[in-house]
Amino acid sequence: MSLAVVNETTVTTFVEDRKAFENCVEECFEMLDVDGDRVLSRSELREGFCKIMSLGHESREEEKINPLFNTIFNRFDEDRNGSIDPQEFRCLIRELMFAMGRGFGSSPVLVVLEIDSLLMKAVEHEFGRI
To answer: Which residue, of 5, 49, 101, 118, has the greatest Cβ tally within 10 A?
Structure first.
């Protein structure tokens, strides 16, 4: 875990840098794709999603997290095959990152982030480390 200051610009600048963002999303996808079949099952997504999105450990309770994954699959599993492919994952992460950026707004916000989270990647991008 690491302490960082973020705002909407931190996130949107990262997402809009297509090369840096897509490289980080691909790394995250590969980390979550435990069986290497190039698609994410519900269980694969559930196992690592909280970490890459910095949702915290308390969010992993099944009764709280299951509705989130149902919504994710209903919204982003475009071909309705029960898994999330790399393109669907990229769309999911892009939309979530923009939503988090809007939530932060223009004022700096001090947050605790997982080292491997996409928000931490956005902070590293802001400081020229990516």
So the answer is: 118
